[in-house]
């Protein structure tokens, strides 16, 4: 069974930094690309960043380029994907979700909230 445990969200002032993580289990982590999405209040979920199975390729939404960094760790079976967020803005306030696509099905984490105060 695919499972994700997300952590690290919280409250931060504008201009600050925060990291969120997503520990995965129940599938072969190293053979799948991973992604972070977010859903801001009253808005639809949007792709924030993605990382290839090897970690060698990443993509970012234009709104977070240069501020956010996605990475992944497979050492010691941690099977974790991270999102490091710098220079945070109030518009980054959202619930952040990790996701993996296996075949035609998407598996989502439960989400971790990030609130950026102005």
What's the structural blueprint in terms of helices and strands?
Layout: E1 3-7, E2 10-13, E3 18-25, E4 34-39, E5 46-51, E6 58-60, E7 68-73, E8 80-85, E9 94-102, E10 105-108, E11 112-117
Parallel strand pairs: 2-11
Antiparallel strand pairs: 1-3, 3-8, 4-5, 4-9, 5-6, 7-8, 9-10, 9-11
Task: Give an overview of the whole structure.
With 118 residues, the chain is mainly beta. It is built from no helices and 11 strands. It has strands at 3-7, 10-13, 18-25, 34-39, 46-51, 58-60, 68-73, 80-85, 94-102, 105-108, 112-117. Strands 2, 4, 5, 6, 9, 10 and 11 form a 7-stranded mixed sheet that branches. Strands 1-3-8-7 form a 4-stranded antiparallel sheet, with no helix packed on it. Strand 4 and strand 5 (46-51) form a beta hairpin. The protein is globular, with a radius of gyration of 14 Å. The model has no long low-confidence stretch (mean pLDDT 95).
* Topology pattern, helix = H, strand = E: EEEEEEEEEEE
- Biggest beta sheet summary: 7 strands, mixed
Instruction: Give the fraction of residues assigned to helices.
Output: under 10%
What is the average per-residue confidence, as pLDDT, rounded to a whole number?
95
Radius of gyration computed on alpha carbons? 14 Å
Distance between the termini: 40 Å
- Quaternary structure annotation: single chain
Which structural class do you get from the secondary structure elements?
mainly beta
Task: Output the number of helix runs.
Answer: 0
Number of separate strands: 11
């Amino acid at each position: 069974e695919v499972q994700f445990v997300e952590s690290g969200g919280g409250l931060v002032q504008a201009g600050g930094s925060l990291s969120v993580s997503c520990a995965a289990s129940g599938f072969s982590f190293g053979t799948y690309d991973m992604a972070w999405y977010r859903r801001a209040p009253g808005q639809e979920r949007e792709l924030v960043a993605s990382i290839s199975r090897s970690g060698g390729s990443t993509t970012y939404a234009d709104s977070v380029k240069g501020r956010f960094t996605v990475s992944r760790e497979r050492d010691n079976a941690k099977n974790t994907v991270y999102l490091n967020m710098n220079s945070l803005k109030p518009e980054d306030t959202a619930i952040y979700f990790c996701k993996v696509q296996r075949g035609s099905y998407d598996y989502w984490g439960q989400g971790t909230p990030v609130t950026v105060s102005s």
